[in-house]
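Dear Dr. H.,

I hope your travels went smoothly. While you were away I took the liberty of generating a structure for the chain from your last submission, since the lab meeting agenda had it listed for discussion. I wanted you to have the full record in hand beforehand rather than looking at slides cold. The sequence, exactly as received, is reproduced here:
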Amino acid sequence: MKNIDLKSHVRGESIYVDDIPVRERTLYGTVFDSSIAHGIIKNLDVTDAAQSDGVAAILTAVDIPGDNQIGMILPDEPLLAAREVQYIGQPIALVLAATEAFARAAAKKIQVEFEALPVIADAREAYNQKQLIDSPRTFYLGDIGAAWNQCDHIFEGRADIGGQEHLYIETQGAYAYPTENGGIKIFTASQSPTVIQKTAAQVLGLPMHKIEVDVGRLGGAFGGKETQATAWAMLAALGAYRKQRAVKIVLHRQDDMRMTGKRHPYSADFKIGLTGDYKIIAYQVSFYQNSGAFADLSTSVMERTLFHVTNSYFIPHVKATVYCCRTHLPPNTAFRGFGGPQGMFVMEAAIARAAEALAVDAAVIQQKNLLQDGDEFPYGQKAGGENAGRCHAQNCWHEVQTRYHIVALREEVAAFNAHDRQYKKGLALMPICFGISFTKIHMNQAGALVHIYQDGSVGVSVAAVEMGQGVNIKMVQVAARGLAVSPDRIKMETTNTTRVANTSPTAASSGADLSGKALEKACLALGTRLKKFAAKKLGLENPAIIEFKDERVYNKGKQTRLSWEQLVRDAYHDRVSLSEHAHYATPIIHFDSKKEKGIPFAYHVYGTAAIVATVDRLRGTYEIDAVKVVHDFGQSMDPIVDRGQMEGGIVQGIGWMTMEEVVYDPQGRLLSNALSTYKVPDIYAAPKELIVHFFQSEGSPLAILRSKAIGEPPLMYGIGAYFAVRNAIRAAKPGITFPFCAPITPEKVLLALYAEK
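The corresponding predicted structure, in token form, is as follows:
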């Protein structure tokens, strides 16, 4: 199956928000934002700015007709700050002008007087000052108090995990204009069209049916446009509503980096207990999540951390607690993995701490504790099962051992380290287990709308948003298979709230499953209807003997005179409906947040990676030599798309773990605010060798065509790069102890190499 967007992408013809032809008299907006991280607005003077060239209006909180509120889970985030500012970059006023240059020039003339208040930038400091966004949550399994007496070895430690900038190619932006009868249409770069629609209705004081939201595609998102796109869409909509003119807002790159939230940094304290034969009996961990100034999605992110706190291992006694700590930074938000990677990193750090103290390879402990069918997760669900498919944690691990000759590879690494003084290699294995579904159960639903036109062509609208992950390609595959027509006949429409309403965000690796299942239902209904008509047309009594294949109608396996085009044309003239809307809700799943138990996931994805890194002990630099993966794709419906997601996710995970360091100063000012100071992997930082083996499993019936979700799981393999580099450092300086602190930048490598033992 060819990428349906390939030609338009490479020819620069694909339409993003900034490419939408603007209407006559369009206004351009820019935001005047807070220059301090915490304070009271004593005075705001827009007089000079309002009189600047080309300025049409300057809007503040008093100009909002509805609620000055854009918080998605908790109502704690104003669209425009009215009295107090909580982070540098928080919007205070919107400047609308005839050109962007006029708007930006005017914004510089706005005068504001602040009364500065104390700033908290660190999660542990926020915790100590009782600055929590919501109540902490704890998952329990077994009896953690009694379990420590069963342990022969007990180790404690701390792990710190940095944030990560989304750095999508397309920055945040929106274009809005008024429609007749008092409505507003919004074109937005958002993963969440319905969130935009619902929030705009609240901000503008309108019913939802007055708001139409359209998303053609996104130039990348990685979670950064699930909620963080909301503010910019609301500001464009507010300007369009107040001025009754079209308004366009597209952020510059440095503004985007400065004003938007990142992956949540975490700090954690862990305690792990093992038997003499390395079985993990007990694991206790407390996470301090740096949530930023407002809730955003932090409470859901912390929940996902708890769901993945034991990664791919069975541990009979667990206590895990997460604290959402309020700081004066931009509100941190969704990022690929959604809190799961942070929890998994700490689990791997705890195993590494035990392995280093016991002088054994971490792989010995990892293998000893891998999940198998029937093992219970701390949230009550069991691995494997009829609907989820088998647990393949151990199968993937053993496949890596044999396929990539890990014993020989380990010997090669040891031999290299014995003979090379300047360079040292490290090998790490990284198993993963990642649950697929929204953990808020009501969000696991989607709709699809299919029109078959009179000439046999097909239009498909779904809830999912295309953002480079290939969901549109997969939807075309589902429709082509369901209707037995060529993919060339199918057009994917934009994601639009008037065609498919009440959509969940395209997130949690669930877009293809939810929308694909809804689309599959719609195609099945249309196919059943057309088979009934075909039987009538052919004078047959039993529609069940009719099948469609290669755009022809078959009767008991024999081709009839009816082609797809003729069937559709005749069905239309016989007044048979050629349109169908279908709705899908994931069955089985449920979760009781009071008991913290249930079945929150439709199924799990498993896999293992072997990662080799080489460290230059003189310079502190390193290279990722190889990443070799065995991954459980289920029955992959599009190996090309899935392989692309694997490779991109792995490199993004390696970047997070090794070089992408988000740095704020104690006053909440972003220091890594440009690509000169924030480093992301380029072609030279990518692994020299990246091999992905498709472990062919039975898949899950709850996955679309039994093809398992692929968006988020690959990122977790990048965690292994951290431990490969760490092992190389320990090869250079045996017996060294140094903190578990990611990313493990060259500066940190040097500090470890030259530190006192």
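Two observations you may find useful: The mean pLDDT is 97. The first strand starts at residue 27 and ends at 33.

With kind regards,
E. W.
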